[in-house]
Write a structure and sequence with these properties.
This protein is an alpha/beta fold and about 575 residues long. About 55% of the residues lie in helices and about 10% in strands. It has 3 domains: about 5-85, Arginyl tRNA synthetase N-terminal domain (Gyrase A, domain 2, 2-Layer Sandwich), CATH 3.30.1360.70; about 120-270 and about 300-370, Rossmann fold (3-Layer(aba) Sandwich), CATH 3.40.50; about 385-560, Isoleucyl-tRNA Synthetase, Domain 1, CATH 1.10.730.
Length: about 575
């Protein structure tokens, strides 16, 4: 399709003799369509051109050479240059592309042969999968889907928290109280109770904490008893986690957790020793990063010789670079781990691997998910299990659907799509870095900015399409019948779908797509309310039907990329 923004950027670039890319980044889409389809804020050039923005706008408008068949009008408003594109050309191109591409918005020219590793979800074994884990699972899953849709080779990794002192604690707790618990049922809840009890005991008695540390040391050394218990806890945990992943439709290409890298940490230590940057500090081995502006040293080995999370992350970077030859390796974790990843990414530069890999490391932080009562803690037993939450949301969705449409078939399946879609959209609707308070009633509001609202608008498009025998072909449409502002709002949004997907991966921000789908759903609602789609004028009906079909397709494709399944009826 014609890249109108690029045409404008090229023309301005020639008129002011500045780089096209810089100009391109400055071009905006006005909120009010009266101010054009694109706008260039001339104050961005005021410093370099040493002129007032209105004068710059006037100069550019006089010098600019642009294809009048594509950009039909240029106007000046204050310090802004406003550009109006050819509506019929845009409409024709958009609808033709929708007709030609089943995967509309997919453009692979920038993605061929590129490998993207995404490390997400990564719950701790022997602990409940709570709503904090849900956010990384949903964000990572959406990024995985979008990258794959755009043609990248994507490797999704569930880096399980299956190693560390916490397992020394759990082993010690099981030694003390294991005979009190039957792990054949509700195993994770019971392991969580043991973990809560042992943490309390560790605070009361330092000697218990020492025994926990020794248990982990034995686990690292392959002690038969500790290893057997650890494996049992892991198997029970994965079985429980899989129930949640099945509900969410989440899949992974690798389940290699921390333990997988335990025997690969010696190489990390050797490489860091060769670099001359590994030093001793209070019995531990650390890398001093103060020269990189990081005041806290990165611990590689504890004073008792045990490795830590950072050591295993470094081993994972080596393994992933060699195994996947990644262009990017994303880590979707809470912003509490910002310092950890700053340290690890800096230390990774000392491992002697190609800069391609260290430059491709990216932390994708997200904010906390809080209960109305405050922050969660597995140590204190204050958390909400995702399985319970999803089931509760599905049940509430079912009640709402039964009230709205008691005769609807397959209510169970539809409620599942609506309930889970509501949870996923809620996690993705705002910038990932923002904290959120979890409110089931709010996320199931069919009239709010929610997943169910988008699903409802999709179902409305289905209802309209179900009233015609077949979808017309674009070559038979009278494009000029779609010049009204409600039709054009939809056309412009559909045109921007590919750009939104690329923005989402460029910023690792699925909320761009979530907000886009909300805008498209709202635009269709306005179009539906203001225009009679099924009407006596066949040409007008065909044009509006095809626009409805296009909306239906993009809503479905976009929602599925977020992990939201669309019901055909509601």
């Amino acid at each position: 399709m014609t890249d109108f923004k690029n045409i404008i950027a090229e023309a301005i670039s020639k008129a002011v003799n500045l780089g096209r890319e810089e100009i391109y980044d400055y071009i905006e889409v006005p909120k009010d369509t009266q101010n054009g389809d694109y706008a260039f804020p001339c104050f961005k050039l005021a410093k370099s051109l040493k002129k007032a923005p209105p004068l710059i706008a006037k100069d550019i408008s006089e010098k600019i050479e642009i294809d009048k068949n594509k950009i039909v009008e240029i106007s000046i408003v204050g310090g802004y240059l406003n550009f109006y594109i050819n509506k019929d050309l845009l409409t024709q191109e958009v609808l033709e592309q929708v007709e030609m591409q089943e995967d509309y918005g997919k453009k692979e020219e920038n993605s061929v042969g590129k490998n993207i590793v995404i490390d997400y979800s990564s719950p701790n074994i022997a602990k409940p999968f709570h709503i904090g884990h849900l956010k990384t699972t949903v964000i990572g899953g959406a990024l995985y889907n979008i990258y794959k849709y755009l043609g990248y080779n994507v490797i999704g990794i569930n880096h399980l928290g299956d190693y560390g002192t916490q397992f020394g604690k759990l082993i010690e707790g099981y030694k003390l109280w294991g005979n009190e618990y039957d792990l054949s049922e509700d195993s994770i809840d019971k392991l969580a109770e043991i973990y809560k009890r042992i943490n309390i005991l560790c605070k009361e008695d330092e000697r218990v904490l020492d025994r926990c540390r020794e248990n982990f040391k034995l686990l690292e050394q392959g002690d038969e008893y500790c290893t057997k218990l650890w494996q049992e806890f892991k198997d029970l945990s994965i079985k429980e986690f899989q129930k949640i992943y099945d509900l969410l439709g989440t899949k992974f290409d690798s389940w290699n957790g921390e333990a997988f890298y335990a025997d690969k940490t010696d190489e990390v230590i050797e490489l860091l020793e060769k670099s001359g940057k590994l030093v001793e500090s209070e019995g531990a081995k650390v890398v001093d990063l103060s020269d990189k502006g990081i005041d806290t040293p990165c611990i590689i080995c504890k004073s008792n010789g045990s490795t830590i999370y950072a050591t295993r992350d470094l081993a994972a970077i080596l393994y992933r670079a060699r195994t996947y030859d990644f262009d990017k390796c994303l880590y979707v974790t809470s912003y509490e781990q910002n310092l950890h990843f700053k340290q690890v990414f800096e230390v990774a530069k000392l491992l002697g691997i190609n800069e391609k890999y260290t430059n491709g490391l990216e932390h994708v932080p997200y904010g906390f998910v809080r209960l109305p009562t405050g922050k969660m803690s597995t140590r204190l037993g204050n958390f909400v299990k995702v399985e319970d939450l999803l089931n509760e949301t599905i049940e509430k969705a079912k009640k709402i659907i039964e009230e709205k449409n008691p005769d609807l078939e397959n209510k169970e399946e539809i409620a599942k799509k609506v309930g889970i879609g509501a949870v996923i959209y809620n996690d993705l609707a705002t910038s990932r870095i923002k904290d959120e308070i979890f409110d089931i009633d709010e996320m199931l509001n069919f009239q709010g900015e929610t997943g169910p609202y988008i699903q409802y608008m999709y179902v409305r498009t289905n209802s309209v399409l179900g009233k015609v025998r077949k979808i017309p072909e674009v070559k038979d449409l009278k494009i000029n019948l779609l010049q009204d502002k409600y039709s054009q709002n939809i056309i412009k949004l559909i045109y921007n779908f590919e750009d939104v997907l690329n923005q989402a991966i460029a910023k690792s921000e699925p909320s761009f797509l979530a907000r886009y789908l909300m805008d498209l759903a709202k635009a269709f609602s306005s179009f539906y309310n203001e225009n009679k789609i099924i009407c006596d004028d066949k040409d007008l009906q065909d044009a509006r039907i095809y626009l409805t079909f296009s909306t239906n397709k993009v809503l479905r494709n976009g929602a599925e990329l977020l992990g939201i399944k669309m019901p055909e009826k509601m």
